[in-house]
Amino acid sequence: MEPDALSYNAGISRMRERRAMAAGAAAAKRDAGGEAGARRHHYSAGISACEKGEQWQRALALLSEMREVKLDPNVISYSAGINACEKGGQWQQALSMLRTMRLRKLDVGFTIYGITASMCEQGGQWSQVLFLFREVRDLVTGK
């Protein structure tokens, strides 16, 4: 029996259904944090877009908006905000976010310390640079 247009269309429909199911499963896995996780993901994506567009003020506004709607920023949100501040030369804001991350017991990576220390150095804030290096040293040595 030769396949005809009807059987081809049926096969294509089944392929579309499988792709839609796979995409739905991937979205469910990505948004495993529920509605809050999905919203946090969207805010973080917006903050990252602001970073790429060198809109540090808008990135900070989105971080502030997250807190206003009772949505705690995560490491990704803060990291994108710090990167946006780097592009805008805003060492004070970056340092403030890094401190907030530490107070909230978020996992601050060495890259974020390095970016923030570099901004402080460019701003002539040598005492802040030394403080950040001490923090990194203490993290590495477990003090």
Automatic annotation (TrEMBL):
Pfam families according to UniProt: PPR
UniProt keyword annotations, A-Z: Repeat
PROSITE patterns: PPR
PPR repeat feature ranges: 74-108
Gene3D superfamilies found in the cross-reference section: Tetratricopeptide repeat domain
Membrane-spanning residues: none
Name under which the protein is recorded: Pentatricopeptide repeat-containing protein
Organism listed in the record: Prorocentrum cordatum
